[in-house]
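Task: sequence design from structure.
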């Protein structure tokens, strides 16, 4: 797989409260963003890979749902993660 265990731990350590904190919304959003960026690069070279395209749309939806949750829960955490990951609404 393109995201190794060490890479996941690094993502969760940077955006979550620790490397074993896989449940935090920020950590999950960061992991989804990493996967979305990887799939986007894949689709630039493989335009007709519709299964990957469907997976990408699904991941974007999941990330959007988490971002909406974070908006309702704590707007400051939402603004911080959007700024740090350079996401746009």
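Answer:
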């Amino acid at each position: 797989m393109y995201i190794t265990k060490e890479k996941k731990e690094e993502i969760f350590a940077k955006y979550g409260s620790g490397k074993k904190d896989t449940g935090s919304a920020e950590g999950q959003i960061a992991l989804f963003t990493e996967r979305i960026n990887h799939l986007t690069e894949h689709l630039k070279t493989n335009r007709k890979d519709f299964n990957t395209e469907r997976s990408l749309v699904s991941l974007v939806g999941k990330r959007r749902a988490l971002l909406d949750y974070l908006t309702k829960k704590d707007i400051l955490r939402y603004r911080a993660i959007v700024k740090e990951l350079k996401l746009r609404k």
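Residues 50-73 form the longest helix (24 residues).
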